[in-house]
Fold this sequence. Notes:
The complex is a heterodimer of chains A (about 375) and B (about 300). Chain A has about 375 residues and is α+β, with helices and mostly antiparallel strands. Chain A has helices at about 50-60, 100-110, 115-130, 145-155, 175-190, 205-210, 225-230, 235-240; strands spanning about 15-20, 25-35, 40-45, 65-70, 75, 85-90, 165, 195-200, 210-215, 220-225, 245-255, 260-265, 270-275, 285-290, 295-300, 305-315, 320-330, 335-340, 355-360, 365. Chain A folds into 2 domains: about 5-240, P-loop containing nucleotide triphosphate hydrolases (Rossmann fold, 3-Layer(aba) Sandwich), CATH 3.40.50; about 245-365, CATH 2.40.50.140. In chain A, helix 2 (about 100-110) runs parallel beside helix 4. The longest helix of chain A has 18 residues, at about 175-190. Chain A is globular. Chain B has a domain at about 85-275: Orthogonal Bundle (MetI-like fold), CATH 1.10.3720.10. Chain B contains 15 helices and no strands. Chain B is globular. Chains A and B meet through strand 6 and helix 2 of A and helix 10 and helix 11 of B. Bound molecules: adenosine-5'-triphosphate and magnesium ion. Magnesium ion binds near residues 51, 91 and 167 of chain A.
Amino acid sequence: MTKWRKPDEVPFLRLEGVVKRFGDFAAVDGVSLDIYRKELFCLLGGSGCGKTTLLRMLAGFEQPTAGRIYLDGADITEAPPYERPINMMFQSYALFPHMSVESNVAFGLKQDGVARVEIRRRVAEALELVQLGPLAKRRPHQLSGGQRQRVALARCLVKRPKLLLLDEPLAALDKKLREHTQFELMNIQEEVGITFIVVTHDQEEAMSLSTRIAVMDRGQIAQVGTPTEIYEYPKSRFTANFIGSINFFDGKVARSEEGELTVTVPDLGRDLHVRSTRQLAIGSDVSVAVRPEKIVISRDPLDLPNSVRGKVRDLGYLGSVSVYRVELENGALIKVSAANTRHSAEREVDWDDEVYLGWRATSAVVLTE
Amino acid sequence: MSGAASEEPSGSGRRRAFWLSGRGLVSSIPYLWLLLFFLLPFAIVLKISLAEPIIAQPPFTPLFGPDGSLQATIDNFLFLLEDSLYIVAYLNSLKIAGISTLLCLLIGYPMAYGIARSPRAIRNILLLLVILPFWTSFLLRVYAWMGILRNNGLINNLLMWLGVIDQPIQMMNSDFAIYIGITYSYLPFMILPLYAALERLSPDLVEAAEDLGCRPWKAFLTITLPLSVPGIIAGSLLVFIPAVGEFVIPSLLGGPDSLMIGRVLWDEFFGNRDWPVASAVAIALLLVLVIPIMLFQRMNLRREGA
Lengths: 369, 306
Ligand SMILES: Nc1ncnc2c1ncn2[C@@H]1O[C@H](COP(=O)(O)OP(=O)(O)OP(=O)(O)O)[C@@H](O)[C@H]1O
Ligand SMILES: [Mg+2]
């Protein structure tokens, strides 16, 4: 059982109905969130959905139009940035160009009036942590993008804030370096035990980094949960679509018994069976959502509670997996992905093959939104 | 070794190719400009400053005598050192230009900062307002200041009407009037480079400083101010250099005892018709200005290299 689900744990950061309007446009529109100590919390959402605005309100650069923000029990809604025990790593890194790496990292400690010897020790420690010790005397313009990003991280970490905000910390890095840095970030977080809020619009990054994810849509929180919860039990079509890809079948509830729903899907001309504990009225409109990798594809009939027939229209070979687009008899296209367990020359299913698709009742979810 | 060397064009050959290429031509324009409008006139003035005054046309001895011998003298320069008038005028010019530059900086910095931080839509309008005075003649604007500062001018009349004073304050024909005139006339030259430096400065940097625990005033001193130093230097040079040699403002607004080198130069040239001494005054002025700037440049380079 993970820590933040302990029923008696008090939230470390609490947002209550936070709204930010620019003119009459609401960039953040009523966000309420609880974040717990030592979480690595991801804010995930498309461009312009209000992630940066939300973070800037936490750092104190913007005043919320409405709502309150509490940190560790104290109301910090009106506190200026320099009085908050929060540090932010900027999307642009915002390194001071006229200072060396060392002075950049020492800057925050100097403002706090930490003793010189202590500053030197902690700066060396922080640079060690991000493996930049040998570059301490360089200026920011003499560093690579990845190195700059690590200086920015060290500059925040060295102050040992209660809360660290990272705005797209890895966006400027290439894929390899990004994966490497993700692990570094997770290690650092475990080592220093600070609470992190990370903004990203890369869903894979969010999945691999975080303890919990908040998916944002047009200034609102669409869903909050662990990566598994968000992926396996999306609450709305928006979240389901945003994280990974998914197939939808629209229909009406026909029967509801013993935790299993039967949904009539007119397009398919048949019923689908979904395991669900939700109590839904007979006849209500629902969507059945199935992830591509939960669907079995075969040339032989399948012994599964949900099974449909179709023809392979498209086949994408991605190395470890293949992605199939299967056209059903009613013309709908279904996405299926399967691990390539055999050599591609011996592939079982090919273009234009007549295939059977099937999945278990536990593999699908029912969505009402 | 020799084989490789023969394939490479020689150093001077490559250089020639560069100057003949289009890019070379473009980058030679500033040099041509300097040669035509700075070095050439400078050489002529230098030549005159080494001659002796005569009553003739032109009123100075040629560089080479009739027998082809060089007739150059540094008497004119020695003369500048002998008569304290010149040294006093130089020092006074430097003082007036220095104080005016400081005033421009103190007034211009907040203005440039304000413009750079204002919404993008009105920024261009504000900049336009800064350079708007250039659309009327410089001379007219200085005359307008005479109308404002005179004993029966705008300010005195207003203050007397308000009953604040019952005797007009003497403002015209003083150093005070010169400071006002120079600061007013050269303010745009301070604001524009400062604006350019401040506008380029990302607001993220100041926010980052505040995020790391700086109060706004401290963030200004540790981030904004040091990063705008190039703008401060450029603006100060643009104001200080022409202000040192300023002639019109001191002669229209200044008093009889506010002696500036521009006026001395004018008097030598047109009053005494002593072209060689006037040229020596000009050359000395140039040296007084250029040497500190070059030293400063050298120091800057060394600091950046470190
Ligand atoms: N100062 C501002 N004035 C007016 N509108 C703003 C301002 N700042 C942000 N917005 C608007 O608010 C919305 C949210 O912006 P925000 O920067 O928070 O998006 P984001 O989720 O961080 O996007 P991205 O992933 O592209 O960084 C955008 O539509 C943006 O245009
Ligand atoms: Mg953003």
